[in-house]
TrEMBL record:
The keyword Protein transport does not apply. GTP binds at D57, A58, R59, S60. PANTHER family: RNASE ADAPTER PROTEIN RAPZ (PTHR30448:SF0). Keywords: ATP-binding, GTP-binding, Nucleotide-binding. Residues 1-164 form the RapZ-like N-terminal domain. This is RNase adapter RapZ. NCBIfam families: PRK05416.1.
Amino acid sequence: MRIILITGISGSGKSVGLNALEDAGFFCVDNLPPSLLRALVATRMQDHGENLAVAMDARSADSLSGLPADIRRLKDEGHDVKVLFLSAKTESLIARFSETRRSHPLSHRLRPDQSPNDRPTLTECILHEREMLVTIEGLGHVIDTSGLSANKLRSWIRDLVETDKTPLTLLFESFAFKYGVPLDADMVFDVRVLPNPYYDIALRPMNGRDQPVIAFLDGQPDAAMLLADIRNFVEKWLPSFKQDNRSYLTVAIGCTGGQHRSVYMAEHLAQYFRGAERVVLRHRELD
């Protein structure tokens, strides 16, 4: 059976992700206590189910400790199990909770020495939840949803589902350093050393997929050398990531605004590797 476990920090988009998986044909269960996972899989096997998606988070904190062992057992039984961990920057999470006016799930969990009038703040809840889920975060692929719209997150989830049948998916993502490094990056390359098309008035409104910008950067010897260095580095270490049984490898390429140089580099890298690897291409700031 193909099983996708979607987990992560509250407010990072797990409901959106679960809905995307349901649209992709998965049988979905939300907020399942991890202790019931194997029983659910057994039930779905009896019903001849093929695709199962389960969302679980800090609301089931008491039984999360046994999740890694359960995942290993399911894999030993022949199931294809993948974990998607959704996360976001604290300021993004605070803004989302403020916009929806929802309380954090952990705000209702009182310590024995607490009174109902002494509940933790939203920031305290978020930090505590990160501590609770730190061991789960390392089980799978992290998706940084900071600044992502719901539609874009659904699109990213669909891309991952479509490529999930391959041993490893290579993701190239352009981004702007001024908006922060993606939390889901495994490798980060800084291309701000290259001449910036932004300072050419004619090129400023364009991006790295437009032919005039491509021609500008193609004419820069440093761009060709840096592209070759990044390509060779990824090519050299990719077999090691495959041997480590990684499902996804995210290579993030950053420039100042995420419009020209990083987009150009990510496009060229994706084009180069697409012939031999399963490749997903993202442009965070353009999207």
